[in-house]
Amino acid sequence: MKLSQRITHLTPGGNDGWDVFYRARRMISEGHAITELTIGEHDIRTDPSILQAMDLSARQGHTGYAMVPGTDLLRDTVAARVQARTGVTTTRRNVLITPGGQAALFAAHVAVCNPGDVGLFLDPYYATYPGTIRGAGAIARPVQTTAEDAFQPRAERIDEAAEGAVSLLINTPNNPTGVTYSRQTLEEIAEVCRRRDLWLISDEVYDTQVWEGDHISPRSLPDMVERTLVVGSMSKSHAMTGSRCGWIVGPEDVISHLINLATHTTYGVPGFIQDAASFALTAGVAMEEEIAAPFRRRRAKAVEILAAQNTVGLVPAQGAMYLMLDIRATGQSGEGFANALLDTHAIAVMPGESFGDTAAGHIRVAMTIDDERFASALQTICNFASELSDRRAAE
Ligand code: PMP
């Protein structure tokens, strides 16, 4: 029987840089002690107070079908949060609750792309981006950024790629690079979107993890509110990755169509999860800061460790739970380095190549183990890079 191209072409075949990750997982299952710095998952679990709110809600009976658009309470809470942070008037009619940011990314592309339309995304990219765009029936077209620009997108490159495109997907703070986009970058992007009549899909799931400056949502830029769909999530801000609770914020008419899409796909998000999310968001910034604190600390330590050597380059670590390290001085590819690091030091990191062509010669390090082990692993990575680079110089 034949399957649809939509599903069989979701991800291109061949080695897409995930070999190291799967090899590390295999080694762990065989009993090897591997230091895992691969996946974007907190080393703490969901706060007991959030679980208590979840439990209470479920026991009080919120276990049936919940309202498809999201509960009034959570939609109001998200709207108030967005309005307070951006100054843009936002009501529940601008909010759809989704099963995580990933479902929101997919729904946003379904909402704006016709089959065969081009959806733009920036390279390097979060691994699911091209598949998400293709899954929505569109053609995923990457726009290159460069290590030399610290992976800040250039408006002229987006403009050059915009022929036939209907949407542009951006992500700040960025996974995998750890950079945040400056106001100037976002203003330039917004200008291209207005001129080229592009929808801007703004993935802001790391908005509580900003180490330098402030998070800027492009929905708040002039004339962007009607063409921007913001993707948010409880996963990173509240260590609720497994709860699958996120949202899309956008114009009312788009949200009403997206509610219709949700009726025919997800049929909403469990009510007790939404009640837990409402509780967590109402707990305010203190809780968000507490959850972000370990990454802030480790990032500060990493800056210190990296400043004391000159083989490994640090892409400006401005936000999110990752460091992007430039290991080109070793003469290795990201993949070669990551494989050798796994074999010789039992440390697993992601090769830059898994996130697109432009991150070649880099590795992504997730700051997701306890401070001491993290600092020690990072030191080992630097020492290993320095050995490789010395060996290369001696050849
Ligand atoms: N966007 C980015 C950039 C991510 O890194 C992730 C998860 N790692 C997501 C979206 C999806 O997150 P979730 O579905 O858990 O909200």
> H/E series, N to C?
HHEHHEHEHEHEHEEHEHHHEEHEEEH
Outline the biggest β-sheet. 7 strands, mixed
Percent of residues in helices: 40-55%
The whole-number mean of residue pLDDT values reads: 96
**How many discrete domains?**
2
Structural class determined from secondary elements? alpha/beta
What ligands does this structure carry? 4'-deoxy-4'-aminopyridoxal-5'-phosphate
Find the count of extended strands (DSSP E, 2+ residues).
13
Write out the strand line-up for the largest beta sheet, numbering strands in chain order.
Answer: 2-8-7-6-5-3-4
Enter the CATH topology name of the largest domain: Aspartate Aminotransferase, domain 2
Give the distance, in angstroms, between the N- and C-terminal Cα atoms: 55 Å
Number of helices: 14
CATH second-level architecture of the largest domain: 3-Layer(aba) Sandwich
CATH superfamily of the largest domain: Type I PLP-dependent aspartate aminotransferase-like (Major domain)
* Broad shape: globular
The proportion of residues in beta strands is 5-15%
Contiguous uncertain segments of 5+ residues:
none
CATH class categorisation of the largest domain: Alpha Beta
What is the C-alpha radius of gyration, as a whole number of Å? 21 Å
